[in-house]
Amino acid sequence: MVQAPGRVNLIGEHTDYNDGFVLPAAIGFQTHVGIALRADRKLAVQSENYSERVQFELEDLPASPRRHWSDYVVGVTQKFEEQGSRLPGMNLLIEGDVPQGAGLSSSASIEVAVFRAFSELSGVRFDGVEVAKLCQRAENEFVGARCGIMDQFVAVYGKKDHAVLLDCRSLGYRLLPIPGGVRLVICNTMVRHALAGGEYNQRRAECEEGARFFAERLPGAKALRDVSLADLEKYGAKLPEIIRRRSRHVISENLRVRQAADAFEKGDLELVGRLMADSHASLRDDFAVSCSELDVMVDLAGEVEGVYGARMTGGGFGGCTVNLVREEDVAEFQRRVAAGYREKTGYAVEIYVSAAADGVSRVA
Q1: How far apart are CA 266 and CA 289, in angstroms?
Q2: Phi and psi angles of residue 356, each rounded to the nearest 5 degrees, phi first
Q3: Could you read off the pLDDT of 221-260 as tens digits, one per residue?
Q4: Which residues, in sequence order, are bridge partners of residue 46?
Q5: How far apart (Å, rounded) are the C-alpha atoms in residues 322 and 199?
Q6: CA dihedral 294, 295, 297, 298 (to 10 degrees)
Q7: In terms of DSSP bridges, do strands 90-96 and 307-313 run parallel, antiparallel, or are they unpaired?
Q8: What is the Cα–Cα distance from 180 to 309, expressed in whole angstroms?
């Protein structure tokens, strides 16, 4: 039996595909995978969450996704075997409590857990970075979702009571302590606006346009990660207004991530909170990926005692906010935010409370 966690990103939004920096933490919601050998070459998978069983021939795995939860298992199976390891027949039992559709990486959680289960059963070991890359490729190339490396990386490298500062270009990382007595409180707006997918791809294209502009003017600039605020000040007037604003968010967000990392190391949660507020404002005003429900949720959090910081997290247009809340104030936070959000929007909120958790591990 193995487990792999979901994750929440504390700061560093829309920086990953710009070769930038992110600061996520693994959370105490996991996918558990039980695995056992069987005598034939079949892969039988039982989902406790869906009360459903599927079975595949390992010699004849599906060549394309079925838009079904089992796609994640099939994609990981393919990538594992592509490394030259012939897997035996197996029974898998999968159960998880990572909220689905909330932007907390339930997909990366199942991918990393299944990969580790295969590794435990077969005795074939992989470096952690390789595990993250192969699971990302399973999602990109088989499932068909364009995700960056962050989700799988933190599912592998997460550590209890720590955040993970990740350089998305080099994949270098640093573990940063989260002070005791602080909880990660994630508030699900329960809305997901339909334009999210198309707008995400548009933002990527706008960032790529900005990167091309600066590459022509700055030697060695390959992505917005390589551009400073001084560079933006010097050349930005020549950019279309929309591209300038998108570029300003990414450039300033990368700076905020590194400042937040230093603040966590010093235990300065007040500074972390100010950086989270600036991040939300930038995502709302320059990157234009917030929505009224997310803004309401952040505003409500700011009215509660014991909240160090609050901002939207994830791609935007709905989904969740992440809040750093003093442990003794969590219950009051939940009560006031839930009541205020229902009053202002008519929606019931889901609130998840967690400490930062460990990454993938064998548990039995």
Answers
A1: 31
A2: -65, 140
A3: 999 999 999 999 999 999 999 999 999 999 999 999 999 9
A4: 53, 93
A5: 22
A6: 120
A7: unpaired
A8: 16
**pLDDT of 323 above 60:** yes
Joined together, the tokens standing for residue 241 give 């207004």
Percent of the chain with pLDDT over 90: 92
Is 90 exceeded by the pLDDT of residue 265?
Answer: yes
Q: How open is the CA angle 322-198-11, to the nearest 5 degrees? A: 20
Give the mean pLDDT of 68-93: 96
pLDDT greater than 80 at residue 68: yes
**Taking a C-beta distance cutoff of 8 angstroms, is the pair 208, 188 a contact?**
no
**Average pLDDT, whole number, for the chain?**
96
What was the pLDDT predicted at 287?
98
CB 165, CB 174: distance < 8 Å:
yes
Catalytic residue positions, numbered: 151
Strand partners, 11: 23
pLDDT (tens digit per residue) in 206-219: 999 999 999 999 99
**SS3 per residue for the chain:** CEEEEEEEEEECCCCHHHCCEEEEEEEEEEEEEEEEECCCCEEEEEECCCCEEEEEEHHHCCCCCCCCCCHHHHHHHHHHHHCCCCCCCEEEEEEECCCCCCCCCHHHHHHHHHHHHHHHHHCCCCCHHHHHHHHHHHHHHHHCCCCCCHHHHHHHHCCCCEEEEEECCCCCEEEEECCCCEEEEEEEEEEECCCHHHHHHHHHHHHHHHHHHHHCCCCCCCCHHHCCHHHHHHHHHHCCHHHHHHHHHHHHHHHHHHHHHHHHHHCCHHHHHHHHHHHHHHHHHCCCCCCHHHHHHHHHHCCCCCEEEEEEECCCCEEEEEEEEEHHHHHHHHHHHHHHHHHHHCCCCEEEEECECCCCEECC
Longest dimension (CA), the chain: 67
Per-residue pLDDT, averaged over 345-354, amounts to 96
- The answer to whether the Cα torsion of 122, 125, 126, 131 is positive or negative is positive
Structure token digits, residue 93: 């039992």
Confidence at 103, pLDDT banded by 50, 70, 90: confident
What is the pLDDT at residue 146?
A: 79
Query: Is residue 26 pLDDT above 70, yes or no?
Result: yes
